[in-house]
Amino acid sequence: MSAIGFRSLALLAAAALCPVWSAAAATYRHPLGVFSVPLPPGWTGKTGAITNVDLSTAGNAYGSIDILPPDRATEFKDRFLKMWKLGYKVQSSGNVRVNGVTGTYQIVRALDSGTRADTVIRIVIAPAGTASVLMILICPVAEWDRWKASFATIEHGLRFVTFGEKAAFTPLPQ
Fold it and tell me: Does domain 25-160 fall into CATH 3.40.1000.10?
């Protein structure tokens, strides 16, 4: 192989590995600059309440990210799960890293009382400085394999202005 051919091949390989040269993913940025989250292809983010973003796709997956006082995140999660009138069951739970800190996750299987559809819900609660983040991602059980990579992109890509245990974000009063 000639030197020019080798250089061209090396440049092509570098372009394939370099994120600067690859297609950029969309990013939702909170209007107050509180956080940003990558949006997988086909996903959109819309500001709901002042400390909330609603995530959706053209498909059957959707979710939300809320910034809450630490003592309210678990309460809100429990209230959300009670809305599933036909019941729910925790399939798995454990620890997860979000924005450089350890949080908890649950994967819940529930029956939607409106459609009677079997639904999977991934719930993540993590400290966000002086607040907590509550992330809820939902899709039909039959589509879990289709959406779980998108859920992981959102979950692991969430970033606050100040990272880690010493982040200083305080949510607005409810």
Answer: yes
